[in-house]
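Record passed on underneath.
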Amino acid sequence: MSDNKATIDNIISSFDSFEAVTSGLSEHQWATQSLCPDWTVHGVASHLAAIETVLTGWFPSSDEDVPPFEKASEFMADAAGLSGADLHQTMSEIFAARRAELLALSDSQLDTPSFTPVGVQTYGRFMGVRVFDLWVHEQDIRVPLGLPGNDGGAVAEQAFGQIESSIGYIVGKKIELADGKSIAFELSGPVERSMYVTVDGRAKAVESLNDPSATIAADSLTFALLACGRIDPSEAIDDGRISWTGDAEIGERAARNLRFTM
């Protein structure tokens, strides 16, 4: 399966999962604070529907063509007055339109140079960032609602790749690991990862380390939520969801400074 095909499958799977987890929620549940500080569950759903509304009917005419993101705030303002059930119906209709568009795209279209939130790449890569956004926001509502799920499997694996690709930046700029030091991240699942970074002038990911200065251990969901600034590091440290061995100062500093996006 091509990377583009996998990405489209994962977006569609994300739509399906988000629709399923929000189906039948009570108005009280829709009003629950999400892990994203600015939004309730209703706000998260409105945001996702708004972005897919922006992308519906848009395809890059050049790598300088930016989606009409101004439509997102207009959509969210209108959606604020909807009941949870009405928002769910509206969101489902938007997702259906996007499914049809995405499934109609050829590999060559997905390889078209495009604006993305991480610089000019391809439309397919843009959709890969959408997988990450959809997955993180789904966890934003699942965790506070006490409805765990979709934290492993193909969607989570691709979403986690966005974090993994930034691990050098996280270690160098956020953890500020000193020159000559190294760090290992051992994630126990459901997305299993071993990530290694050494600092030799600059922080860079490497294939392996013989004797890291510190080793950080966590489950993948906790690591992702910390990297996305969704949970308090002190709470994750205190309850043992993240721990370390080796240099204690480096380990604690790493556990407290994983956030690279929000």
About this structure: Residues 123-145 form the longest helix (23 residues). Residues 62 and 148 are 40 Å apart (CA to CA).
